[in-house]
Specification:
Mean pLDDT: 85
Number of strands: 12
Strand content: 25-35%
Radius of gyration: 31 Å
Strand order of the largest sheet: 1-2-3-12-9-8
Order of helices and strands: HHHHEEHEEEHEEEEEEE
Shape: elongated
Low-confidence stretches: none
Largest sheet: 6 strands, mixed
Helix content: 25-40%
């Protein structure tokens, strides 16, 4: 009877665990790994081994939240959840029937999910174009110091040639430190124009070259904006590195990113010159 009671206790404990798990499996946030996979099968999702369970659960919740009516306001709410409020811009070109979404390329884990969500919400006659953004800031500063001249030899004294220089400069220190701003807008815009003339090509994943003729470069005040198209037809399925090169082939900028390429995308570099240290 003791052995029978022990076996019954173990069976009841296991049944209690299974009942609790059955209850939790009704919720994506608490379900087991096996049930999570089943939910993904129901939504037609094939997960990757590199994806965390937190990401997979959040992706499923996003799919479940996509219910009509579909409006730009609703789409903006979904993008606030996926990308983050204030971390993207959305522009609708009604004349060209094109929807542009621009977000930082450094965080593209949700890029595929963003494309899937927009694909489900937008009308069929609207084209979705992703604009991964690579921002960069270049800081410049000015320091002003002065020195006093000191002559080591005087007329009428005995000169010992080579012992000392004829004239020495005695450093008196800094009168304007770098922390105090002094640069004017013209010098910052001049830096942007100078960099524009130096950029000769873009390189994708270390192999695919985009020449200067295909780069749209605009110096806007203290900013240099460089835009170009990355075509899937070039044999790319994803973008993992983008570089800007000069005419000699030297690398000017390099960014390690991840962007899937289900279709052509428009890359955009924004390089801003600012005063700072």
């Amino acid at each position: 009877m003791q052995v029978l009671a022990e076996q019954e206790t173990a069976l009841l404990a296991r049944a209690d665990t299974q009942i609790r798990q059955f209850s939790e499996d009704q919720f994506i946030a608490k379900c087991s790994s096996a049930m999570l996979t089943e939910y993904e099968r129901m939504f037609g999702i094939t997960h990757s081994t590199s994806e965390s369970e937190d990401f997979r659960r959040a992706r499923l919740l996003n799919r479940m939240a996509a219910k009509p009516p579909y409006t730009l306001t609703f789409l903006r709410q979904r993008l606030d959840e996926i990308i983050g409020r204030g971390r993207y811009t959305m522009e609708m070109d009604y004349d060209a029937y094109t929807l542009y979404v621009e977000s930082a390329a450094a965080n593209q884990q949700w890029a595929h999910e963003t494309a899937v969500t927009i694909g489900k919400l937008k009308p069929c006659n609207i084209v979705y174009v992703s604009r991964p953004l690579i921002p960069a800031n270049l800081l410049a500063a000015e320091e002003i110091s002065y020195a006093q001249r000191e002559y080591n030899y005087r007329l009428g004294t005995t000169w010992r040639l080579g012992m000392k220089p004829f004239l020495s400069l005695n450093d008196k220190g800094v009168v304007k430190p770098m922390q105090n701003k002094s640069l004017q807008p013209e010098i910052l815009s001049g830096m942007a124009r100078a960099l524009k003339s130096d950029v000769a090509a873009a390189r994708i994943n270390g192999t695919v070259m985009i020449p200067a003729q295909q780069l749209q470069m605009t110096a806007q005040g203290d900013k240099l904006v460089i835009a170009y198209t990355v075509a899937r037809a070039a044999g790319l399925t994803e973008v993992t590195r983008v570089e800007l090169l000069n005419a000699a082939g030297a690398v000017l900028t390099r960014a390690e990113i991840y962007i899937p390429l289900p279709e052509d995308i428009e890359m955009k570099h924004t390089i801003q010159f600012a005063e700072g240290v």
